Amino acid sequence: MSLLHRIESPADLKQLTPEEFPQLCQEIRDCIIATISQAGGHLASNLGVVELTIALHYLLNTPDDQIVWDTSNQAYAHKLLTGRRDQFHTLRQFGGLSGFCKREESPYDTFNAGHAGTGVSAAVGFVEAYAQQAQPHKVVCVVGDGAMTSGMTLEGLQQAGSLHKDFVVILNDNQMSISKNVGAISAYLNRTFTGEFYARLKEETSQLLEAIPQIGGSVKKMAVRAEELAKGLILPGLLFEELGFRYVGPIDGHNFEHLLPTLENVLKLKGPTLLHVITKKGLGYEPAMKNPVWFHACPPFDLQTGKPRKTAARPSYSAVAMNTLCGLAREDSRIVAITAAMCEGTGLTAFEKEFPTRLYDVGIAEQHAVTFAAGLAAQGMKPVVPMYSTFLQRAYDQVVHDVATQNLPVAFCIDRGGLVAEDGTTHHGAFDFAYLRHIPNMTIMAPKDENELQHMMKTCLNHDGPTALRYPRGISLGVEMDPQPMELPIGTGELLRDGEDIALIAVGVTVHQAMKAAERLEQEGMSVAVVNARFVKPLDGALISAVAKHVKCLLTVEESSRQGGFGSAVLEWLSDESLVHVPTRIIGLPDWYIEQGPQDLLREKYGLTADGIYEQAKQLLTQVSVQSILR
């Protein structure tokens, strides 16, 4: 029996000797690589923390002692060691294990997290809760160096340092978040001296040493070596020491001879302590080490070559949006793009390659990204902020306070709007229509296909005010593309077909399904109108009113939350126009957090396919007919 198959809980891990740990690491890596090659998932980051995970569960008394994984997409080894080995093959599948920590899944998963930067703040809450209840449990937070670019991490650290409670933060430093780390914190962790004082001191010292007769050159070389040593000994810890933490490290996170005794000693220390651990993203799988960005969150791949099992026949919506942006940027030098450590994920790599000085990666700092964009816009630039819907939530106040109140022309390209499949609860873009729609000055649009997407991109950049262009994850429909993007009139929808029995008013990717449902209803003798709303705000009220006055009932369709979303906007308009007598039903996502699963499966489950729209339309028409007879 392999070592991994002998472990049902951390108690079994404690029966092994440290000499057996390298073999266990290899077995864990083999299991993770094999599973992700079939199901897809976060590979590179998980391969990098195997030794650290083993060391933590070996030395701590989990789950009484608590490990908080920031972001938690690096907790695969943690899952394997905490009783979920036999279910590991279901990772990220519908009804299976989550790709992140999930309290509902295991008592060893202490905090749900899919967004970076939450770990330290949550862990400080744990520390204080235990203090209030006089419980002696230890708390350890594992935070990646990428999350150090998140202001929330620094906010948590500054409070923890002032509390003077026993608390360990492990900085897992692999020089990457998803993309390569950027910014001053990253440079600081890499022990880079900067500043006028240091530069002047270094130059003056160099000149002084060189002036010493005969031995000046040799002494200077010795001083350079001493300088490098000083960098390693002093610089990395200064920031954390100033925040009230005892700094330990950096140490090799893959060497048990260093890791185990250091961590054991750190866990005995009083007060807040930060252990700086250096790891290698993708360790144990050569393709992941060579390309950690692609293997951060990868689709299924061939185990031997590391290449994806399937290649898309058509471009993704992200690619279409960003290729259009590149074309428009060639014509207007005021266009710049901003990303929060998601250059590859949002498709901005083409823009970065063509316009390197006009692409700003601000790190995992969505709030700063939005206000930075507002500053650019206030001085005449045309900033574009491509960001996943679920991550834009983190900058809500900045959208309201810094962009919309000043009516600044910032274009938000909301990627991954709607259902995003296997990343699940924390990543579905379910709420963007609802949380943006009520903001004054905001214009919101969603294309029915990739051709309309390119037109909407131009519309956003030509509009003198804040805009949100929302599009889904996945490949495009393959429609014919117009040669050039064209500006659309703001707030104008599109009547795709006319009818008298029922109107299907759809927005975004649901328009295509609504058309298919209409065709099926027509085959059964019903007269069906279909409206492509295009704009969630402002609505094409005139079109909606005209259609509503000539049909028996309305059905709105959206791949977003029913509460406060597009359908709610239509109901508000009908109320304002005294058309509430027209029976109306909303199809959208329900009032709970949507689970993980393939997009097609989830769309079918929640009635967002042609079949689901067809069934709802028939039910509504039947209901209207019965009510008519009763009257």
Which class of secondary structure composition applies to the elements? alpha/beta
Whole-angstrom Rg: 28 Å
Largest sheet: 7 strands, mixed
Overall residue-averaged pLDDT value: 89
* Oligomer state of the chains in this structure: single chain
| Strand runs, count | 17
Low-confidence stretches: 190-199, 225-234
Task: Bin the strand percentage.
Answer: 5-15%
Helical element count? 24
Q: Helix fraction?
A: 40-55%
**Major sheet: arrangement of strands:** 7-6-8-9-11-10-15
Gross morphology is: globular
Q: Give the termini distance in whole angstroms.
A: 74 Å
Structural write-up:
The protein has 631 residues and is of the alpha/beta class. 42% of the residues lie in helices and 14% in strands. The protein is built from 24 helices and 17 strands. It has a 7-stranded mixed beta sheet, sandwiched between helices. A 5-stranded parallel beta sheet has the order 1-2-3-5-4, sandwiched between helices. α6 runs parallel beside α7 (151-163) and α13 packs parallel to α19.
